[in-house]
Design a protein that fits this description.
Helix content: over 70%
Largest sheet: none
Strand content: under 5%
Structural class: mainly alpha
Number of domains: 1
Radius of gyration: 15 Å
Distance between the termini: 18 Å
Order of helices and strands: HH
Number of strands: 0
Number of helices: 2
């Protein structure tokens, strides 16, 4: 389960990287590509952060039993 959590954490970091890359590469990317990358990065961060919260809450409730 810890490997899955680490995988989700790296996916969240990759989502943040997509968002940061758009500001760094704004000089040679079009506005459409920038908006797509920001959208994909935001969706990745949200989805995998929710997955990490799910795993953490599942582990917490399993420990409380």
């Amino acid at each position: 389960m810890y490997q899955l959590a680490l995988l989700f954490l790296t996916a969240v970091l990759a989502g943040f990287a997509l968002i940061v890359v758009t500001s760094l590469a704004a000089s040679f990317l079009s506005a459409t590509v920038i908006n797509i990358l920001i959208g994909l990065g935001s969706i990745a961060v949200i989805v995998f952060a929710l997955a990490l919260l799910y795993l953490a809450s599942k582990a917490l409730f399993r420990e409380l039993r």
